[in-house]
Each structure stands twice: as structure tokens, then as C-alpha cells.
Write the C-alpha cells for this entry.
Amino acid sequence: MSSLFVQQLLLSVVIAGLWISGVSLLSERLGSRLGGMISNLPSTILVSLLFIGITQSPGFAAEATISVPLGMTLSTLFLFSFILFLPRGLGWGLVAALATWLGLAVLSSFFQQVGRLTWTLVYFVVAIGTWLIAEKGLKITSAPKTGKRYSWWQVLIRAAFAGTVVGTAVIIGRSGSAFWTGIFSTFPAVMLSSMVILTLSAGPGFARGLGKIMLLASTNIIVYGHFAGYFFPRAGLAWGTVISFIIATLWVWLLKPLFDRSK
């Protein structure tokens, strides 16, 4: 493991940890609707692909985005499983979600030849379908802001937990092929960290309300992956990241009227 990779790994852990702990705190202040929109902006995929591009090449990072729709399909089903089983307890929610993700990740390895377009269509069916089930079937309601305040060490614990999850995904992604790099670049680190943190701090009801929004807001990751794959080889890693993030943010904002009309 090169010193450059260690430096970039540590930086990714710090950035991701601060981002996830920050947006979880912001979610509690803004409520589950706006919190869900902000929480699922590109973070894990941004950090992973950026540093993969630095330590390997922009072309390899662009190639890894091909499997992003598949990775997000797995992540969306991860989140839905967590929401579905959370009423039974946090442990049940985590076990069900991780088992779902790992099982589907292994199964998906047999479909590596399936193209980006097919997986993108599958993803949108899954994202829209799970959101409708959560909204209409499970009747999960949005939660208001909590107004809680936390000490600096509580925030630090959130950051350390979230950063560790992201760092692990980056290490695994670097050691695999472009296919597995793309899968682990979309590992649901934000979802896992946010759901655990908010379940413990704000309660299962708030976590489920935020998770419902994240099911559909996660479509911005597909948008980010598509444009990152296009711009990395053409505009470079820095500008490719900035442009793709702006486009993904605008996409989420376009979904706001739909979220405002939800329960």
C-alpha cells in the first residue's frame, strides 16, 4: 500500500466522516424531508471515485461508474430492508439490510456483462417502487425537526463511525476490478451511518421518515455517476467532480415539489 494511497485514504475518511456527521445533524434540524434530500447527495461515491482516479487513473474511475446503477440498486434495497425491519429493532434492521446487500452483491457478479442502460432501468424501477411502497403501503410519514443539541464528542463519534465505513469501502474497492470498484463506490455508507445514528439519536420514526425520502432522492447518485463517467476523461478529476456534483444537486432540487406533497 503506497504512501500516496494512505494519505488519500485518511483524507477520504476525514471528509466523509465530517460530511455524514454534519448532514445527520442538519437532518435533525431541518426535518426528514429536507434532511433526506441533503443526506443522499453524492458523498461516498464522490470520495471513492475521486481518490480511485488519483491513485489509479481518471480512465479507471470513469470505467468504474458503469456499475454504479447496479450498486445503487443494491443500496436502495439495502435501505428498504432496513426501513422494513427497523420496527423490530435496530439489530434486526441492520442484519436484514446487510444480508440483503451482500447477497445481492454476490448474485450480481454473475451479471457483469449486463450494460449500464439495463441496470439504470432496473434501478429506477426499484427506486420508484420501494418509495411508493414506503409512501402508500407502509404509510411512513415524514418527521419534523428534533431540535436536539449535541456535544462535540458526540459529533466526533458520529464522524469516526461514518469515516470508518467509507474508508473500508475505499480499501476494498481499490483491491478489486473495475466492476467491484464501482459496486463498493456505492456501498451504502451514508445510508448505514445515517440510519444508525438517527435511529439512536432521533428515534426509529425519524429514521424511517428520512429513509423514505432517501429511497427516491438516491436517483441523484445515478445522475452523478453518469456525468462523472463522461467528464472525468474529458475535464479531469477536479472539474469532472464539481460539474457532476452540481448537476446531481440540481436533480434533487427538481424532486423537492414531489417530496413536499408526500406524507
